[in-house]
Amino acid sequence: MTIRLLPPNLVNQIAAGEVVERPASALKELVENAIDAGATRIDIVLNDGGRSLIVVTDNGCGMTPQELMVAVDRHATSKLPSNDLLAINYLGFRGEALPAIGSVARLTVTSRTADADSGWYVVVAGGRKDGPVPAPHPRGTRIEVRDIFFATPARLKFLKTAQTELSYAVDAVERLAMSYPDITFTLTADGKQRLNLPAGLTQGDLFDSHLERLAVILGKDFAANAVPVAAEREGLRLYGYIGVPTFNRGNALAQYLFVNGRPVRDRVLAGAVRAAYQDFLAHNRHPYVVLFLELPQTDVDVNVHPAKAEVRFKDAGLVRGLMVGALKHALAEAGHKASTTVAAGALGAFQAQGNRAFMTRPAMTGYGAAYALQAPLDEENQGLSEDAGTSLFALAPSAPDATPVEAVDADYRSHPLGVARAQVHETYIVAQTGDGIVIVDQHAAHERLVYERMKAAMADGGVARQMLLIPEVIELDESAAARVAARAPELAELGLVLEAFGGNSIVVREVPALLGETDVAGLVKDLADDLASVDEALTLKDKLGDVCGTLACHGAVRAGRRLNGAEMNALLRQMEVTPHAGQCNHGRPTYVELKLKDIERLFGRR
Protein backbone atom coordinates (compact mmCIF):
# COMPACT_ATOMS: atom_id res chain seq x y z
CA MET A 1 0.00 0.00 0.00
CA THR A 2 1.12 3.56 -0.68
CA ILE A 3 2.33 5.79 2.17
CA ARG A 4 0.70 9.23 2.05
CA LEU A 5 0.36 12.36 4.16
CA LEU A 6 -2.98 12.70 5.93
CA PRO A 7 -5.06 15.80 5.16
CA PRO A 8 -4.83 18.56 7.83
CA ASN A 9 -8.47 18.22 8.93
CA LEU A 10 -8.07 14.47 9.54
CA VAL A 11 -4.88 15.15 11.50
CA ASN A 12 -6.80 17.61 13.66
CA GLN A 13 -9.61 15.09 14.23
CA ILE A 14 -7.05 12.49 15.34
CA ALA A 15 -5.61 15.06 17.74
CA ALA A 16 -9.12 15.81 18.97
CA GLY A 17 -9.48 12.15 19.87
CA GLU A 18 -6.64 12.61 22.35
CA VAL A 19 -7.22 16.17 23.54
CA VAL A 20 -11.03 16.44 23.38
CA GLU A 21 -12.26 13.28 25.03
CA ARG A 22 -15.54 14.86 26.20
CA PRO A 23 -16.99 18.38 26.69
CA ALA A 24 -15.16 18.71 30.01
CA SER A 25 -11.84 18.15 28.20
CA ALA A 26 -12.56 20.97 25.76
CA LEU A 27 -13.66 23.23 28.62
CA LYS A 28 -10.47 22.51 30.55
CA GLU A 29 -8.33 23.53 27.57
CA LEU A 30 -10.28 26.76 27.07
CA VAL A 31 -10.13 27.74 30.75
CA GLU A 32 -6.38 27.05 30.79
CA ASN A 33 -5.98 29.37 27.81
CA ALA A 34 -7.88 32.08 29.69
CA ILE A 35 -5.63 31.67 32.73
CA ASP A 36 -2.53 31.83 30.53
CA ALA A 37 -3.89 35.07 29.02
CA GLY A 38 -3.72 36.73 32.45
CA ALA A 39 -7.47 36.81 33.10
CA THR A 40 -8.73 37.83 36.54
CA ARG A 41 -12.30 36.75 35.77
CA ILE A 42 -13.52 33.73 33.79
CA ASP A 43 -17.24 33.17 33.09
CA ILE A 44 -18.49 29.84 31.73
CA VAL A 45 -21.86 28.90 30.23
CA LEU A 46 -22.85 25.31 29.42
CA ASN A 47 -25.97 23.78 27.90
CA ASP A 48 -26.80 20.07 27.84
CA GLY A 49 -23.67 19.19 29.82
CA GLY A 50 -21.55 21.03 27.24
CA ARG A 51 -22.70 18.94 24.30
CA SER A 52 -24.74 21.69 22.63
CA LEU A 53 -22.95 24.78 23.97
CA ILE A 54 -19.74 25.78 25.77
CA VAL A 55 -18.92 29.47 26.22
CA VAL A 56 -15.81 30.73 28.00
CA THR A 57 -15.40 34.49 28.44
CA ASP A 58 -12.33 36.11 30.02
CA ASN A 59 -10.84 39.57 30.54
CA GLY A 60 -7.32 38.56 29.56
CA CYS A 61 -4.89 40.19 27.16
CA GLY A 62 -6.89 39.34 24.01
CA MET A 63 -5.66 38.72 20.44
CA THR A 64 -5.19 40.82 17.30
CA PRO A 65 -6.94 39.79 14.02
CA GLN A 66 -3.69 38.32 12.73
CA GLU A 67 -3.18 36.30 15.92
CA LEU A 68 -6.80 35.08 15.75
CA MET A 69 -6.24 33.51 12.33
CA VAL A 70 -3.01 31.83 13.42
CA ALA A 71 -4.42 30.65 16.78
CA VAL A 72 -6.85 28.24 15.10
CA ASP A 73 -4.04 26.60 13.10
CA ARG A 74 -2.38 23.49 14.47
CA HIS A 75 0.76 23.87 16.61
CA ALA A 76 0.47 27.66 16.79
CA THR A 77 1.27 29.01 20.27
CA SER A 78 2.73 32.04 22.04
CA LYS A 79 3.78 29.99 25.06
CA LEU A 80 7.11 28.56 23.88
CA PRO A 81 9.18 31.65 23.07
CA SER A 82 12.47 29.78 23.50
CA ASN A 83 11.38 26.56 21.76
CA ASP A 84 12.47 24.68 24.90
CA LEU A 85 10.03 21.98 26.01
CA LEU A 86 11.70 21.92 29.43
CA ALA A 87 11.00 25.62 30.01
CA ILE A 88 7.19 25.65 30.11
CA ASN A 89 5.72 28.52 32.11
CA TYR A 90 2.11 28.11 31.02
CA LEU A 91 -0.67 25.53 31.36
CA GLY A 92 -1.01 25.18 27.59
CA PHE A 93 1.91 25.03 25.18
CA ARG A 94 1.21 22.65 22.26
CA GLY A 95 -1.19 24.83 20.25
CA GLU A 96 -3.55 21.91 19.60
CA ALA A 97 -6.67 22.81 21.57
CA LEU A 98 -8.43 25.33 19.28
CA PRO A 99 -7.80 23.54 15.95
CA ALA A 100 -8.71 20.18 17.51
CA ILE A 101 -11.98 21.56 18.86
CA GLY A 102 -12.68 23.36 15.58
CA SER A 103 -12.26 20.11 13.65
CA VAL A 104 -15.09 18.35 15.54
CA ALA A 105 -17.39 21.25 16.53
CA ARG A 106 -18.59 24.71 15.48
CA LEU A 107 -16.06 27.12 17.00
CA THR A 108 -16.28 30.92 17.23
CA VAL A 109 -13.44 32.94 18.77
CA THR A 110 -14.02 36.65 19.47
CA SER A 111 -11.22 38.75 20.95
CA ARG A 112 -9.94 42.27 21.51
CA THR A 113 -6.68 43.64 22.85
CA ALA A 114 -6.52 46.60 25.24
CA ASP A 115 -5.25 49.05 22.59
CA ALA A 116 -7.59 47.97 19.75
CA ASP A 117 -10.57 50.05 18.59
CA SER A 118 -12.81 46.98 18.16
CA GLY A 119 -12.85 43.26 18.51
CA TRP A 120 -12.62 40.61 15.79
CA TYR A 121 -13.97 37.12 15.43
CA VAL A 122 -13.13 34.00 13.45
CA VAL A 123 -15.33 30.96 12.82
CA VAL A 124 -14.15 27.35 12.44
CA ALA A 125 -16.69 24.61 11.59
CA GLY A 126 -15.61 21.06 10.87
CA GLY A 127 -12.06 22.25 10.18
CA ARG A 128 -13.01 25.11 7.80
CA LYS A 129 -12.22 28.63 9.02
CA ASP A 130 -13.69 32.00 8.03
CA GLY A 131 -12.70 35.50 9.10
CA PRO A 132 -11.52 37.64 10.68
CA VAL A 133 -14.62 39.82 10.92
CA PRO A 134 -14.97 42.99 13.06
CA ALA A 135 -17.23 42.66 16.10
CA PRO A 136 -17.98 44.77 19.19
CA HIS A 137 -16.31 43.21 22.22
CA PRO A 138 -14.67 44.35 25.47
CA ARG A 139 -11.05 43.58 26.22
CA GLY A 140 -10.46 39.84 26.45
CA THR A 141 -11.63 36.73 24.62
CA ARG A 142 -14.90 34.87 24.20
CA ILE A 143 -14.81 31.32 22.83
CA GLU A 144 -18.05 29.62 21.83
CA VAL A 145 -18.22 25.90 21.04
CA ARG A 146 -21.48 24.54 19.62
CA ASP A 147 -22.51 21.00 18.73
CA ILE A 148 -19.37 19.24 19.87
CA PHE A 149 -18.57 16.12 17.80
CA PHE A 150 -21.07 17.06 15.06
CA ALA A 151 -18.30 16.32 12.55
CA THR A 152 -17.56 12.94 14.16
CA PRO A 153 -21.02 11.71 15.26
CA ALA A 154 -19.70 8.28 16.26
CA ARG A 155 -17.97 9.96 19.22
CA LEU A 156 -21.34 11.11 20.61
CA LYS A 157 -22.24 7.51 21.43
CA PHE A 158 -19.44 7.41 24.01
CA LEU A 159 -20.70 10.39 25.99
CA LYS A 160 -22.65 9.89 29.22
CA THR A 161 -25.86 11.63 30.25
CA ALA A 162 -25.97 15.42 30.30
CA GLN A 163 -25.85 15.45 34.11
CA THR A 164 -22.78 13.19 34.19
CA GLU A 165 -20.97 15.26 31.57
CA LEU A 166 -21.82 18.38 33.56
CA SER A 167 -20.31 16.85 36.70
CA TYR A 168 -17.07 16.21 34.80
CA ALA A 169 -17.04 19.82 33.60
CA VAL A 170 -17.67 21.23 37.09
CA ASP A 171 -14.87 19.07 38.48
CA ALA A 172 -12.43 20.31 35.81
CA VAL A 173 -13.22 23.96 36.63
CA GLU A 174 -13.05 23.38 40.40
CA ARG A 175 -9.60 21.82 40.11
CA LEU A 176 -8.26 24.85 38.23
CA ALA A 177 -10.04 27.22 40.62
CA MET A 178 -8.31 25.59 43.59
CA SER A 179 -4.94 26.41 42.11
CA TYR A 180 -5.82 30.02 41.22
CA PRO A 181 -7.69 31.60 44.15
CA ASP A 182 -6.91 35.10 42.83
CA ILE A 183 -9.17 34.53 39.78
CA THR A 184 -12.97 34.79 39.86
CA PHE A 185 -14.76 31.81 38.29
CA THR A 186 -18.45 31.46 37.50
CA LEU A 187 -20.22 28.55 35.80
CA THR A 188 -23.83 28.61 34.64
CA ALA A 189 -25.44 25.40 33.36
CA ASP A 190 -28.79 25.45 31.52
CA GLY A 191 -29.57 28.87 32.98
CA LYS A 192 -28.74 27.88 36.57
CA GLN A 193 -25.57 29.04 38.29
CA ARG A 194 -23.53 26.07 39.50
CA LEU A 195 -20.33 27.82 40.58
CA ASN A 196 -19.63 31.29 41.90
CA LEU A 197 -16.06 31.53 43.16
CA PRO A 198 -15.02 35.13 43.80
CA ALA A 199 -11.34 36.01 43.98
CA GLY A 200 -9.88 35.57 47.46
CA LEU A 201 -10.19 38.47 49.87
CA THR A 202 -6.88 37.57 51.58
CA GLN A 203 -4.64 37.67 48.53
CA GLY A 204 -1.61 38.66 50.57
CA ASP A 205 -1.60 35.33 52.40
CA LEU A 206 -1.23 32.29 50.16
CA PHE A 207 -2.47 29.86 52.79
CA ASP A 208 -5.54 31.90 53.74
CA SER A 209 -6.56 32.57 50.14
CA HIS A 210 -6.32 28.90 49.23
CA LEU A 211 -8.25 27.78 52.32
CA GLU A 212 -10.90 30.40 51.58
CA ARG A 213 -11.37 28.92 48.08
CA LEU A 214 -11.22 25.31 49.32
CA ALA A 215 -13.90 25.98 51.93
CA VAL A 216 -16.28 27.04 49.14
CA ILE A 217 -15.50 24.06 46.90
CA LEU A 218 -15.00 21.25 49.44
CA GLY A 219 -17.27 22.63 52.16
CA LYS A 220 -16.90 24.10 55.63
CA ASP A 221 -16.25 20.64 57.11
CA PHE A 222 -12.98 20.46 55.16
CA ALA A 223 -11.89 23.88 56.41
CA ALA A 224 -12.71 22.87 60.01
CA ASN A 225 -10.76 19.61 59.75
CA ALA A 226 -7.85 20.70 57.55
CA VAL A 227 -4.23 20.63 58.69
CA PRO A 228 -1.75 22.97 56.94
CA VAL A 229 1.27 21.47 55.17
CA ALA A 230 4.43 23.42 54.36
CA ALA A 231 7.87 22.04 53.50
CA GLU A 232 10.87 22.84 51.29
CA ARG A 233 13.82 20.73 50.22
CA GLU A 234 16.47 21.12 47.50
CA GLY A 235 14.48 23.57 45.37
CA LEU A 236 11.14 21.83 45.90
CA ARG A 237 8.31 23.55 47.76
CA LEU A 238 5.20 21.77 49.02
CA TYR A 239 2.20 23.46 50.62
CA GLY A 240 -1.52 22.94 51.00
CA TYR A 241 -4.01 21.31 53.34
CA ILE A 242 -4.82 17.75 54.34
CA GLY A 243 -7.69 16.37 56.41
CA VAL A 244 -7.23 14.77 59.82
CA PRO A 245 -7.41 10.95 59.46
CA THR A 246 -10.89 10.65 60.98
CA PHE A 247 -12.18 13.01 58.27
CA ASN A 248 -12.13 10.54 55.38
CA ARG A 249 -14.26 8.98 52.66
CA GLY A 250 -14.68 5.72 50.75
CA ASN A 251 -12.88 6.79 47.54
CA ALA A 252 -9.93 8.93 46.48
CA LEU A 253 -11.97 11.55 44.60
CA ALA A 254 -11.21 14.19 47.26
CA GLN A 255 -7.46 14.08 46.62
CA TYR A 256 -6.29 17.04 44.58
CA LEU A 257 -2.64 17.31 43.54
CA PHE A 258 -1.08 20.20 41.64
CA VAL A 259 2.38 20.57 40.11
CA ASN A 260 3.42 24.14 39.27
CA GLY A 261 -0.26 25.14 39.28
CA ARG A 262 -1.28 22.27 36.99
CA PRO A 263 -3.85 19.71 38.28
CA VAL A 264 -2.41 16.22 37.77
CA ARG A 265 -3.08 12.60 38.61
CA ASP A 266 0.33 11.14 39.39
CA ARG A 267 1.15 7.71 40.81
CA VAL A 268 4.18 8.97 42.71
CA LEU A 269 2.15 11.65 44.47
CA ALA A 270 -0.84 9.37 45.12
CA GLY A 271 1.49 6.69 46.50
CA ALA A 272 3.12 9.24 48.81
CA VAL A 273 -0.31 10.15 50.23
CA ARG A 274 -1.10 6.48 50.90
CA ALA A 275 2.27 5.98 52.59
CA ALA A 276 1.79 9.00 54.85
CA TYR A 277 -1.66 7.84 56.02
CA GLN A 278 -1.00 4.09 56.19
CA ASP A 279 -0.75 4.10 60.00
CA PHE A 280 -4.04 5.92 60.44
CA LEU A 281 -6.58 4.70 57.90
CA ALA A 282 -8.13 1.38 56.96
CA HIS A 283 -7.29 0.19 53.44
CA ASN A 284 -10.76 1.07 52.11
CA ARG A 285 -10.78 4.65 53.44
CA HIS A 286 -9.15 7.68 51.81
CA PRO A 287 -8.16 11.11 53.19
CA TYR A 288 -9.01 14.58 51.93
CA VAL A 289 -5.86 16.10 50.40
CA VAL A 290 -5.16 19.34 48.50
CA LEU A 291 -1.43 19.76 47.84
CA PHE A 292 0.55 22.14 45.67
CA LEU A 293 4.08 21.24 44.57
CA GLU A 294 6.38 23.85 43.05
CA LEU A 295 9.72 22.93 41.48
CA PRO A 296 11.97 24.10 38.63
CA GLN A 297 10.53 23.38 35.17
CA THR A 298 13.69 21.46 34.26
CA ASP A 299 12.94 18.95 37.04
CA VAL A 300 9.53 17.90 35.70
CA ASP A 301 8.28 16.79 32.26
CA VAL A 302 4.67 17.82 31.62
CA ASN A 303 4.69 16.60 28.02
CA VAL A 304 4.08 12.90 28.70
CA HIS A 305 0.27 12.80 28.44
CA PRO A 306 -2.02 14.06 25.63
CA ALA A 307 -4.29 15.84 28.11
CA LYS A 308 -1.35 16.96 30.32
CA ALA A 309 -2.93 15.06 33.23
CA GLU A 310 0.28 13.23 34.16
CA VAL A 311 3.83 14.38 34.76
CA ARG A 312 7.24 12.74 35.11
CA PHE A 313 9.74 13.86 37.73
CA LYS A 314 13.49 13.97 37.26
CA ASP A 315 13.96 12.76 40.85
CA ALA A 316 10.77 10.96 41.86
CA GLY A 317 12.38 9.68 45.07
CA LEU A 318 13.10 13.20 46.28
CA VAL A 319 9.52 14.29 45.57
CA ARG A 320 8.04 11.25 47.32
CA GLY A 321 10.32 11.67 50.33
CA LEU A 322 9.39 15.34 50.69
CA MET A 323 5.66 14.56 50.51
CA VAL A 324 5.69 11.64 52.94
CA GLY A 325 7.81 13.52 55.45
CA ALA A 326 5.76 16.73 55.21
CA LEU A 327 2.42 14.93 55.54
CA LYS A 328 3.55 12.84 58.50
CA HIS A 329 4.92 15.94 60.22
CA ALA A 330 1.65 17.81 59.66
CA LEU A 331 -0.38 14.90 61.05
CA ALA A 332 1.90 14.73 64.08
CA GLU A 333 1.44 18.48 64.63
CA ALA A 334 -2.32 17.90 64.70
CA GLY A 335 -1.79 15.86 67.89
CA HIS A 336 -4.93 14.20 69.22
CA LYS A 337 -7.28 16.24 67.00
CA ALA A 338 -10.25 14.29 65.64
CA SER A 339 -12.76 15.27 62.97
CA THR A 340 -15.59 17.62 63.95
CA THR A 341 -17.91 15.54 61.76
CA VAL A 342 -17.66 12.70 64.29
CA ALA A 343 -19.42 14.88 66.87
CA ALA A 344 -21.98 16.01 64.30
CA GLY A 345 -22.78 12.36 63.54
CA ALA A 346 -23.17 11.60 67.22
CA LEU A 347 -25.53 14.55 67.72
CA GLY A 348 -27.53 13.42 64.70
CA ALA A 349 -27.93 9.99 66.27
CA PHE A 350 -29.20 11.58 69.47
CA GLN A 351 -31.65 13.79 67.62
CA ALA A 352 -33.02 10.83 65.69
CA GLN A 353 -34.40 9.43 68.94
CA GLY A 354 -37.17 12.04 68.91
CA ASN A 355 -39.04 12.19 72.22
CA ARG A 356 -37.77 8.92 73.63
CA ALA A 357 -36.54 9.06 77.20
CA PHE A 358 -32.76 8.93 77.44
CA MET A 359 -32.70 7.82 81.07
CA THR A 360 -35.17 5.87 83.16
CA ARG A 361 -33.21 5.89 86.42
CA PRO A 362 -33.64 8.71 88.96
CA ALA A 363 -31.12 11.54 88.49
CA MET A 364 -28.08 11.52 90.77
CA THR A 365 -26.31 14.62 91.95
CA GLY A 366 -22.83 15.41 93.20
CA TYR A 367 -19.49 13.94 92.26
CA GLY A 368 -20.54 10.55 93.60
CA ALA A 369 -22.80 10.20 90.56
CA ALA A 370 -19.75 10.29 88.30
CA TYR A 371 -18.74 6.74 89.17
CA ALA A 372 -22.22 5.42 89.90
CA LEU A 373 -21.96 3.03 86.96
CA GLN A 374 -18.80 1.37 88.27
CA ALA A 375 -18.54 -1.40 90.84
CA PRO A 376 -15.65 -1.40 93.34
CA LEU A 377 -12.48 -2.53 91.60
CA ASP A 378 -10.97 -5.86 92.55
CA GLU A 379 -9.63 -9.07 91.03
CA GLU A 380 -13.04 -10.76 90.95
CA ASN A 381 -14.85 -8.12 88.90
CA GLN A 382 -12.05 -7.94 86.28
CA GLY A 383 -10.72 -4.54 87.37
CA LEU A 384 -7.08 -3.70 86.70
CA SER A 385 -4.79 -4.97 89.42
CA GLU A 386 -1.92 -2.77 90.56
CA ASP A 387 0.52 -4.72 88.39
CA ALA A 388 -1.73 -4.93 85.36
CA GLY A 389 -2.33 -1.19 85.46
CA THR A 390 1.40 -0.54 85.26
CA SER A 391 1.49 -1.01 81.47
CA LEU A 392 -1.14 1.71 81.10
CA PHE A 393 0.52 4.22 83.40
CA ALA A 394 3.95 3.45 81.94
CA LEU A 395 2.84 5.13 78.74
CA ALA A 396 2.97 8.54 80.39
CA PRO A 397 6.34 10.21 81.05
CA SER A 398 5.15 10.95 84.59
CA ALA A 399 1.87 9.18 85.15
CA PRO A 400 -0.37 10.68 87.83
CA ASP A 401 -1.12 8.88 91.04
CA ALA A 402 -4.65 8.60 92.34
CA THR A 403 -5.85 12.20 92.50
CA PRO A 404 -8.06 13.58 95.27
CA VAL A 405 -11.64 14.25 94.16
CA GLU A 406 -11.37 17.97 94.91
CA ALA A 407 -8.23 18.40 92.78
CA VAL A 408 -9.75 16.50 89.84
CA ASP A 409 -12.91 18.58 90.04
CA ALA A 410 -10.92 21.82 90.00
CA ASP A 411 -8.70 21.26 86.96
CA TYR A 412 -10.98 19.77 84.29
CA ARG A 413 -10.92 23.11 82.42
CA SER A 414 -7.14 22.99 82.03
CA HIS A 415 -7.06 19.79 79.93
CA PRO A 416 -8.19 19.54 76.28
CA LEU A 417 -9.81 16.15 76.95
CA GLY A 418 -11.06 17.13 80.39
CA VAL A 419 -11.29 14.90 83.46
CA ALA A 420 -12.92 11.47 83.66
CA ARG A 421 -16.36 11.42 85.26
CA ALA A 422 -17.59 7.89 84.48
CA GLN A 423 -16.98 4.64 82.64
CA VAL A 424 -20.05 3.20 80.93
CA HIS A 425 -20.48 -0.38 79.71
CA GLU A 426 -16.87 -0.98 80.80
CA THR A 427 -15.87 0.37 77.36
CA TYR A 428 -16.37 4.11 77.17
CA ILE A 429 -14.89 6.86 79.35
CA VAL A 430 -17.00 9.98 79.82
CA ALA A 431 -14.95 13.09 80.61
CA GLN A 432 -15.98 16.67 81.37
CA THR A 433 -14.19 19.50 79.57
CA GLY A 434 -14.41 23.24 80.04
CA ASP A 435 -17.15 23.59 77.40
CA GLY A 436 -18.64 20.14 76.92
CA ILE A 437 -18.03 16.42 77.31
CA VAL A 438 -15.74 13.86 75.68
CA ILE A 439 -16.59 10.19 75.17
CA VAL A 440 -13.51 7.97 74.71
CA ASP A 441 -13.34 4.43 73.36
CA GLN A 442 -10.81 3.04 75.86
CA HIS A 443 -9.62 0.14 73.68
CA ALA A 444 -9.18 2.20 70.51
CA ALA A 445 -7.41 5.00 72.40
CA HIS A 446 -5.03 2.73 74.28
CA GLU A 447 -4.32 0.78 71.08
CA ARG A 448 -3.02 3.97 69.48
CA LEU A 449 -0.89 4.79 72.54
CA VAL A 450 0.71 1.33 72.58
CA TYR A 451 1.28 1.48 68.83
CA GLU A 452 3.05 4.86 68.99
CA ARG A 453 5.22 3.70 71.88
CA MET A 454 6.20 0.55 69.96
CA LYS A 455 7.22 2.62 66.95
CA ALA A 456 9.29 4.90 69.19
CA ALA A 457 10.94 1.89 70.82
CA MET A 458 11.84 0.46 67.41
CA ALA A 459 13.40 3.76 66.41
CA ASP A 460 15.43 3.76 69.64
CA GLY A 461 16.88 0.32 69.01
CA GLY A 462 14.29 -2.27 69.92
CA VAL A 463 11.30 -3.21 72.01
CA ALA A 464 11.88 -4.32 75.61
CA ARG A 465 10.96 -7.97 76.24
CA GLN A 466 9.30 -9.80 79.08
CA MET A 467 10.17 -13.48 79.57
CA LEU A 468 7.26 -15.86 80.11
CA LEU A 469 7.54 -17.87 83.30
CA ILE A 470 6.22 -20.88 81.39
CA PRO A 471 6.83 -20.80 77.61
CA GLU A 472 3.59 -21.15 75.69
CA VAL A 473 3.20 -23.78 72.97
CA ILE A 474 0.76 -22.87 70.20
CA GLU A 475 -0.69 -25.20 67.55
CA LEU A 476 -1.05 -23.79 64.02
CA ASP A 477 -1.59 -25.33 60.62
CA GLU A 478 1.59 -26.38 58.83
CA SER A 479 1.87 -23.41 56.44
CA ALA A 480 1.10 -20.85 59.18
CA ALA A 481 3.69 -22.38 61.52
CA ALA A 482 6.28 -22.28 58.74
CA ARG A 483 5.54 -18.61 57.99
CA VAL A 484 5.88 -17.57 61.61
CA ALA A 485 9.05 -19.60 62.23
CA ALA A 486 10.69 -18.16 59.12
CA ARG A 487 10.18 -14.65 60.48
CA ALA A 488 11.41 -15.43 64.00
CA PRO A 489 14.57 -13.24 63.85
CA GLU A 490 12.55 -10.22 62.69
CA LEU A 491 9.80 -10.81 65.26
CA ALA A 492 12.49 -10.90 67.95
CA GLU A 493 13.40 -7.29 67.01
CA LEU A 494 9.77 -6.42 67.76
CA GLY A 495 10.05 -8.08 71.17
CA LEU A 496 8.35 -11.39 70.34
CA VAL A 497 10.77 -14.35 70.78
CA LEU A 498 9.51 -17.63 69.38
CA GLU A 499 10.75 -20.70 67.53
CA ALA A 500 9.53 -23.85 65.83
CA PHE A 501 8.64 -26.62 68.26
CA GLY A 502 8.31 -29.59 65.95
CA GLY A 503 5.41 -30.43 63.64
CA ASN A 504 2.86 -27.64 63.52
CA SER A 505 3.77 -26.05 66.85
CA ILE A 506 5.36 -22.74 67.80
CA VAL A 507 6.78 -22.03 71.26
CA VAL A 508 6.74 -18.44 72.54
CA ARG A 509 9.40 -17.60 75.15
CA GLU A 510 9.27 -13.78 75.38
CA VAL A 511 6.70 -11.09 74.53
CA PRO A 512 6.96 -7.29 74.24
CA ALA A 513 6.93 -5.84 77.75
CA LEU A 514 4.51 -3.16 76.57
CA LEU A 515 1.77 -5.72 76.09
CA GLY A 516 1.56 -6.75 79.73
CA GLU A 517 -0.82 -9.68 80.19
CA THR A 518 -2.06 -10.73 76.75
CA ASP A 519 -3.56 -13.65 74.86
CA VAL A 520 -0.31 -15.01 73.42
CA ALA A 521 -2.00 -17.72 71.34
CA GLY A 522 -4.43 -15.24 69.79
CA LEU A 523 -1.59 -12.84 69.08
CA VAL A 524 0.51 -15.43 67.24
CA LYS A 525 -2.47 -16.63 65.20
CA ASP A 526 -3.28 -13.07 64.14
CA LEU A 527 0.37 -12.49 63.19
CA ALA A 528 0.31 -15.67 61.11
CA ASP A 529 -2.67 -14.27 59.21
CA ASP A 530 -0.87 -10.96 58.70
CA LEU A 531 2.24 -12.70 57.38
CA ALA A 532 0.16 -14.56 54.80
CA SER A 533 -0.40 -11.26 52.99
CA VAL A 534 3.23 -10.06 53.20
CA ASP A 535 5.43 -10.59 50.17
CA GLU A 536 8.34 -12.89 51.10
CA ALA A 537 10.72 -10.35 49.59
CA LEU A 538 9.60 -7.71 52.10
CA THR A 539 11.04 -7.48 55.57
CA LEU A 540 8.75 -6.95 58.53
CA LYS A 541 10.22 -3.46 58.85
CA ASP A 542 8.67 -2.76 55.44
CA LYS A 543 5.32 -3.84 56.92
CA LEU A 544 6.02 -2.45 60.37
CA GLY A 545 2.69 -0.66 60.55
CA ASP A 546 0.62 -3.83 60.07
CA VAL A 547 2.67 -5.96 62.48
CA CYS A 548 2.89 -3.30 65.20
CA GLY A 549 -0.82 -2.67 64.77
CA THR A 550 -1.59 -6.30 65.54
CA LEU A 551 0.72 -6.28 68.56
CA ALA A 552 -0.79 -3.02 69.83
CA CYS A 553 -4.32 -4.33 69.45
CA HIS A 554 -3.49 -7.27 71.72
CA GLY A 555 -1.69 -5.02 74.21
CA ALA A 556 -4.45 -2.44 74.52
CA VAL A 557 -6.90 -2.17 77.40
CA ARG A 558 -9.82 -4.29 76.32
CA ALA A 559 -13.43 -3.24 76.08
CA GLY A 560 -15.14 -4.75 79.11
CA ARG A 561 -12.29 -4.00 81.53
CA ARG A 562 -13.18 -1.66 84.35
CA LEU A 563 -10.85 1.22 85.09
CA ASN A 564 -10.62 3.41 88.16
CA GLY A 565 -10.48 7.21 88.09
CA ALA A 566 -6.69 7.46 88.12
CA GLU A 567 -6.36 4.97 85.26
CA MET A 568 -8.93 6.77 83.13
CA ASN A 569 -7.30 10.15 83.70
CA ALA A 570 -3.86 8.70 82.93
CA LEU A 571 -5.26 7.52 79.59
CA LEU A 572 -6.70 10.98 78.83
CA ARG A 573 -3.47 12.79 79.72
CA GLN A 574 -1.37 10.51 77.54
CA MET A 575 -3.78 10.93 74.61
CA GLU A 576 -3.23 14.69 74.82
CA VAL A 577 0.54 14.36 74.33
CA THR A 578 0.57 11.47 71.82
CA PRO A 579 0.52 12.22 68.08
CA HIS A 580 -2.42 10.83 66.13
CA ALA A 581 -4.32 9.89 69.30
CA GLY A 582 -7.55 11.03 67.68
CA GLN A 583 -7.84 7.79 65.72
CA CYS A 584 -6.95 4.16 66.28
CA ASN A 585 -4.70 2.14 63.96
CA HIS A 586 -7.70 1.32 61.74
CA GLY A 587 -8.75 4.93 61.17
CA ARG A 588 -11.71 4.94 63.55
CA PRO A 589 -12.08 7.88 65.96
CA THR A 590 -10.91 7.26 69.52
CA TYR A 591 -13.12 9.95 71.02
CA VAL A 592 -16.15 12.11 70.33
CA GLU A 593 -16.37 15.65 71.68
CA LEU A 594 -19.79 17.21 72.25
CA LYS A 595 -19.94 20.92 72.98
CA LEU A 596 -22.21 22.11 75.77
CA LYS A 597 -24.11 24.41 73.40
CA ASP A 598 -24.95 21.42 71.17
CA ILE A 599 -26.09 19.35 74.13
CA GLU A 600 -28.27 22.23 75.27
CA ARG A 601 -29.90 22.33 71.84
CA LEU A 602 -30.84 18.66 72.23
CA PHE A 603 -32.84 19.57 75.31
CA GLY A 604 -34.33 22.77 73.92
CA ARG A 605 -32.25 25.08 76.09
CA ARG A 606 -31.04 27.04 73.05
Describe the structure.
With 606 residues, the chain is α+β, with helices and mostly antiparallel strands. The protein has three domains: 8-197, Heat Shock Protein 90; 206-333, Ribosomal Protein S5, domain 2; 338-354 and 369-606, formyl-coa transferase, domain 3 (2-Layer Sandwich). 34% of the residues lie in helices and 23% in strands. It contains 19 helices and 24 strands. Strands 5-4-3-6-2-1-7-8 form an eight-stranded mixed beta sheet. It has a five-stranded mixed beta sheet with strand order 9-10-15-12-13, sandwiched between helices. A hairpin with a 4-residue loop joins strand 22 (497-500) and strand 23. Helix 5 packs antiparallel against helix 6, helix 8 (267-277) runs parallel beside helix 9 (316-333) and helix 14 packs across helix 16. The N and C termini lie far apart (84 Å).
Topology:
Layout: H1 8-19, H2 23-36, E1 41-47, E2 53-58, H3 65-71, H4 97-104, E3 106-112, E4 119-125, E5 128-135, E6 140-146, H5 162-179, E7 184-189, E8 192-197, H6 206-218, H7 220-224, E9 226-233, E10 236-243, E11 248-249, E12 255-259, E13 262-264, H8 267-277, E14 286-287, E15 289-294, E16 300-301, E17 312-313, H9 316-333, H10 340-351, H11 390-393, H12 405-410, E18 419-424, E19 428-433, E20 436-441, H13 442-459, E21 465-475, H14 478-486, H15 488-493, E22 497-500, E23 505-512, H16 520-532, H17 544-555, H18 565-577, E24 591-595, H19 596-602
Parallel strand pairs: 1-7, 12-15
Antiparallel strand pairs: 1-2, 2-6, 3-4, 3-6, 4-5, 7-8, 9-10, 10-15, 11-14, 12-13, 16-17, 18-19, 19-20, 20-24, 21-23, 22-23
Helix pairs in contact: 1-4, 2-5, 5-6, 8-9, 13-17, 13-18, 14-16, 16-17
